[in-house]
Each structure stands twice: as C-alpha cells, then as structure tokens.
Amino acid sequence: MSNYKEFYTYDLNKVIKTVTDRSARKILIQLPDGFKAYATSIVDELRNYLGHGVELVIDANHIYGSCILNKHLSNYYDLIIHFGHEPYPYLNEVSHKVIFIDFLSNLRPSNRLINDLVKTLRSLDIRRTAVYATHQHKRALTDIANALLSNGIELLNINDLSKSIIMGCWFSDALKYLDKCDGYVVISGGLFHSLGLGLHIRGVKHLIQVDLYRDEVKVIDDIVSKYLKVRYCKIMKALDARTWCLIHGVEGQYRDNIREVLIKAANGKGIRVYEAQSHIINYDVIRNIDNSTIDAYVVTACPRLPIDDLSELEKPVLTPGEALMVLNNDISNYVFPW
Predict the structure, then answer these.
(1) Are 21 and 119 in contact (CB under 8 A)?
(2) Which residue, among 56, 67, 58, has the nearest Cα to 36 in the 3D structure?
(3) What is the pLDDT of residues 103-142, one digit of tens each?
(4) What is the bridge-based pairing of β-strands 272-277 and 79-83?
(5) In angstroms, rounded to a whole number, what is the distance separating the alpha carbons of residues 51 and 127?
C-alpha cells in the first residue's frame, strides 16, 4: 500500500527542477489525509534523485485542503511540496516556499462505467449537463466529457474544463449552468465533494456521481435532499437565537471579511456576539466554551464542519451562508458555503 505508482502519478521532473533551482536543502512533504501512506515511497524516490544531503520530512499533521498550510512549519524549511490539492482560491497570499504538485489517479472510466452513466442520464431525461471532478481525477474529465458528447449529450462546460475542479467549499462556475442544465455529473470518490456541489446548487437539479474507485454511477438526489432537511432544521432552530458565538479558524480558514459581515448583520438584529478562534474545531472544543448564555454557533472556518462533523451538537451550528440566511430573514434559497 506504500508504493503510489500503481495508483497515482506526479511530475517528478517538476519537483527535481524546483528543488535544484531553489537550492533547497530542507524540504517538507505534504500529502492529504488518505494519501499519507504513500509518503515514504515518495521520499525514497526523491532521495534517489536528490541524494541524502537533502533533508526530506513528512508532515504528519492532518491536511484536509490547501486552505491550511501551516505557516509556522514553513519557517523551518526551504521548500514545502504540497501534493494532491489545487491552490486554495479564497487565499490571496501563499508562501513562496510552497509549490503545488498534481497527484493524479491512474484510473480511467471503463466502457461499462460510461455505458452506465449514459443510461442513467437518459433515464433522468438529462440532455444537457456540466461535469466536474476532484483534483485526483483531472484526467478523467476529458475522457468522460468526450464520451458524453459522442453519445449526444450536450456538455455546457466543454470549453471550460480547466475550471471544473471542485473542492469541499469551492465549486468553480457550477452556478453559471444552474438554469441551463438538466443535471450535474461529479467525478469523485466518496460523498464529500459531490454532496458539497449538491448543497451548492440547493438540490434543485439531478446530481450524478461517477466513482472511479468503485466503478459505480450513483444518483445522489435523495442524499442531498436528506442533508438539506437537516440543515434547514438547524436554521429554523437558530431563528430565535439571541446570542451567537462565531468560531474562526486560522490561516486560510480565517475569513475576516466574512467575520465583519456577520458581526455587522448580527448587531443590526440586536444579537449578542461572542468570538472564539481555534486551529481545531470539534465537539470537545465547542463544549469546552459552551454555556447557557450561547444559543447558537457559526463556524467561519471550514463550512463543512457544521455539516459533516458537528451536526449532532445539541445547539445549532451554522455555516456562514446559513447564518446569513437567518440574519437576512431569507430562508427561501439555501446558501452554501457563504
């Protein structure tokens, strides 16, 4: 399981050239959670080319996205090689020490998978669609796009596939096609990214997930609908909340502009606001600061935390978009993430 080459590829030449050009001697290797098992294989490969005079250290911290790159750690290294994520679109400033390296899946859609996808689209009367993918499946985008076109399905974003990479809180230009398409196709493993897109489009269009790992096509409309019901329940509970606690993240998950908008709107509604900040936001962190004064929480850091990790808390925990729905007294259209 430690050798990545059977499953993934990266641009070794780009890494070697960057290290050489920068004369980097101390290098931090970052891989997303779920890919860290390949870190030793990558280190061994780089040592073969760079020699043992270069110090290669694996970042063992949790890495869920490029929004948090640990600025403190960067002080100890000449170069940080971040595998498997796109640069974070909401982060205006990234350390010059960080380079982003594609870590791409070798999987390609099988003929059976393509046939299942086309059959599913036709069964739902989806004639116009837009296709998106996670970072690891960049190369499969073209395969599936061409397959859909050859089967007479109109692909609205065929000229913008370079923009079609999505993250947990970033869905590129998906809303651009909301009124034009009959449904969306997402190439991803698991539900994390496809669910995010489903919430972003408010569940108003069909959403079909193509899972290359499972060789499976799945319509997830019912799953999106279930999550939306839960989120609206949280929103309704927060309507009467008179004291809020905003919990901010750090680095790319500290969003001062969102903080200012929320505080201004809350003050205008006569809502008392407390603020907290933490690198890690989980049940224990919230329960440690919780008391009878606080009625609701708003996580301004990662908007997936309220949805995926904190939905069972006894008090409502909202995303920024959900909080603004409450503050603007407009719950007619669900807003995710902001």
Answers:
(1) no
(2) 58
(3) 999 999 999 999 999 999 999 999 999 999 999 999 999 9
(4) unpaired
(5) 54
Contacts of 303 (CB under 8 A, 6+ apart): 168, 169, 319, 320, 321, 336, 337, 338
**pLDDT 10s digits, 131-144:** 999 999 999 999 99
Nearest-angstrom CA–CA distance, 254 and 173? 23
Instruction: Name, in order, each residue with C-beta under 8 angstroms of 113's C-beta and a sequence gap of 6 or more.
Output: 210, 212, 215, 216, 217
Dihedral angle over CA of 178, 183, 189, 191, nearest 10: 70
Neighbours of 203 (CB within 10 A): 20
- Report which DSSP code applies to 165: B
In angstroms, the CA 278 to CA 280 distance is 5
Q: Each residue of 54-101: pLDDT tens digit? A: 999 999 999 999 998 887 888 899 999 999 999 999 887 778 899 999
Asked if 88 contacts 253 with a C-beta cutoff of 8 angstroms, the reply is no
Task: Count Cβ atoms within 10 A of the Cβ of residue 295 and give its class: 0-12 exposed, 13-18 middle, 19 or more buried.
Answer: middle
Smallest Cα–Cα separation from 212: which of 145, 121, 146, 141? 141
The pLDDT of residue 160 is 87
